[in-house]
Amino acid sequence: MSRHTGSIPFTKEDLCNEAVTVLSKGRWANADLLLYSNGNGNWVVKDFSPCPSLVRRTYGRFMVNREVRALQRLQGINGIPKNPFQLHRLALSYQYIPGKTLKESKKEPVGSHYFLALENLVQQMHERNIVHLDIRYMRNILITDDGGPALLDFQSSLFLDKIPRTLHQLLKIVDISGVYKCWQKISPESLDDKRREILESVEKKRSLWVFKGYPLGTRLSRR
Ligand SMILES: Nc1ncnc2c1ncn2[C@@H]1O[C@H](COP(=O)(O)OP(=O)(O)OP(=O)(O)O)[C@@H](O)[C@H]1O
Ligand SMILES: [Mg+2]
């Protein structure tokens, strides 16, 4: 039986007692991704506890905090994981979204309809003053079972509130070009000239940029 603390749908103690499966095992500075099911639905738990102590005490805590805050600000947008909360200092949780990552769907027909919806989702996120900065990585994007887009992994996101306004457009175009990059990889024939030109102009400048998602290309991928 789940115990509830305040408005939190479950506690870390519940994880020991009920069905948990591993979605993906972390490596060094990557969290473990668990799937937990209870009477309130299916939940993803992103847990940095198994990481080395240095990661837990610094990066892990910071990442959990940042991702929870970003997800909370984005609530209400279709395609954003719902009901995020901090489970404990080193773990957050949010609702599971049934679907496939864009990486897994690479060989399947995905057309302009999907990518226009993804572009729109990214614009809605920008209207809430958040940039994602890791949209090129196709394991961070889902095609849901309904055929729509969902955006995951706000670890490297940035709140624009305290960033100088002159940089906002540049950071937003990094995200938008990430959408076009995925579009070009998966369905190049459906990418129109206007968007292709934007992508090409960003690609030319990109080698000089710091904002590639992870500093200096040091993505700590589990694959
Ligand atoms: N809400 C969700 N619904 C469905 N699947 C999810 C959800 N959140 C995460 N996942 C799955 O877990 C994977 C990893 O999630 P996430 O990108 O947040 O972690 P990560 O530590 O950055 O991993 P990676 O290095 O693979 O990107 C996703 O690619 C996806 O398969
Ligand atoms: Mg990720």
What does this structure look like?
- By secondary structure, the chain is α+β, with helices and mostly antiparallel strands.
- It folds into two domains: 12-95, Phosphorylase Kinase, domain 1; 99-217, Transferase(Phosphotransferase), domain 1.
- It has five helices and ten strands.
- It has helices at 12-17, 53-73, 112-127, 165-186, 193-206; strands spanning 20-24, 32-38, 41-47, 85-88, 91-95, 99-101, 130-131, 141-144, 149-151, 158-159.
- It has a five-stranded antiparallel β-sheet with strand order 1-2-3-5-4.
- Strand 4 and strand 5 form a beta hairpin.
- Helix 3 packs antiparallel against helix 4 (165-186) and helix 4 (165-186) crosses helix 5.
- The termini are far apart.
- The chain binds adenosine-5'-triphosphate and magnesium ion.
- Residues 139-140, 153 line the site of magnesium ion (MG).
- Magnesium ion is lined by residues 139-140, 153.
Q: What share of the residues does DSSP label as strand, in percent? A: 15-25%
What is the distance, rounded to the nearest whole angstrom, between the alpha carbons of the first and last residues? Answer: 36 Å
CATH-derived architecture of the largest domain: Orthogonal Bundle
Side-by-side strand order of the widest sheet? 1-2-3-5-4
Small molecules held by this entry: adenosine-5'-triphosphate, magnesium ion
- Which structural class fits the helix and strand makeup? alpha+beta
The beta-strand count equals 10
Rg on CA atoms, Å: 18 Å
| Mean pLDDT across every amino acid position | 89
Identify the CATH homologous superfamily of the largest domain.
Transferase(Phosphotransferase) domain 1
CATH class of the largest domain: Mainly Alpha
Order of helices and strands: HEEEHEEEHEEEEHH
Main beta sheet strand tally, sense and closure: 5 strands, antiparallel
Under CATH, the topology of the largest domain can be stated as Transferase(Phosphotransferase), domain 1
